[in-house]
């Protein structure tokens, strides 16, 4: 049984230690804001914050999370008062929306590390895929949240 923290709450999952974190979050904790896209670490829909780093939760096992602090999209805010979420709304960002929780998590990690990222730094940090092509609005929202 692995023990770690999800959204400031201690969790213990009775799942195989090699189970991807994504499945525990979605199936055991009902934190379905974290999305399944590819399952191979390429799309970023499943991005969560682990100890201040943007991590693809489909590619990290429960055993690798032992003792660590995981934050999901559900912890940002429930009233959209988070500046990144506000910027996403202000830029009318989502199209289909499926990838956006992962994008917001990756953007939040970037902005904690770099309060005024350039477009080049945004492109380097946000490696998530958006099939709707919202990248220009993602850059604009990150610049807005940085103000
Ligand atoms: Fe994890 Fe695509 S579902 S990177």
TrEMBL record:
GO terms for molecular function: 2 iron, 2 sulfur cluster binding; isoquinoline 1-oxidoreductase activity; metal ion binding. The keyword Ribosomal protein does not apply. It is an enzyme of class 1 (oxidoreductase). Keywords: 2Fe-2S, Iron, Iron-sulfur, Metal-binding, Oxidoreductase. Its EC number is 1.3.99.16. Residues 1-76 form the 2Fe-2S ferredoxin-type domain. The keyword Oxidoreductase applies. This is Isoquinoline 1-oxidoreductase alpha subunit.
């Amino acid at each position: 049984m692995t023990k770690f923290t999800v959204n400031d709450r201690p969790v213990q999952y009775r799942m195989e230690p090699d189970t991807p974190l994504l499945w525990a979050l979605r199936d055991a904790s009902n934190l379905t804001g974290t999305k399944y896209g590819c399952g191979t670490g390429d799309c970023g829909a499943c991005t969560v914050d682990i100890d201040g780093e943007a991590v693809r939760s489909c590619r990290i096992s429960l055993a690798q999370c032992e003792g660590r602090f995981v934050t999901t999209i559900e912890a940002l805010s429930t009233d959209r008062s988070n500046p990144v979420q506000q910027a996403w709304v202000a830029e009318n960002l989502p199209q289909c929306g499926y990838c956006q929780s992962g994008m917001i998590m990756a953007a939040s990690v970037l902005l904690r590390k770099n309060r005024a990222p350039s477009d080049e730094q945004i492109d380097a940090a946000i490696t998530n895929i958006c099939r709707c092509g919202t990248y220009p609005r993602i850059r604009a929202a990150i610049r807005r949240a940085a103000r």
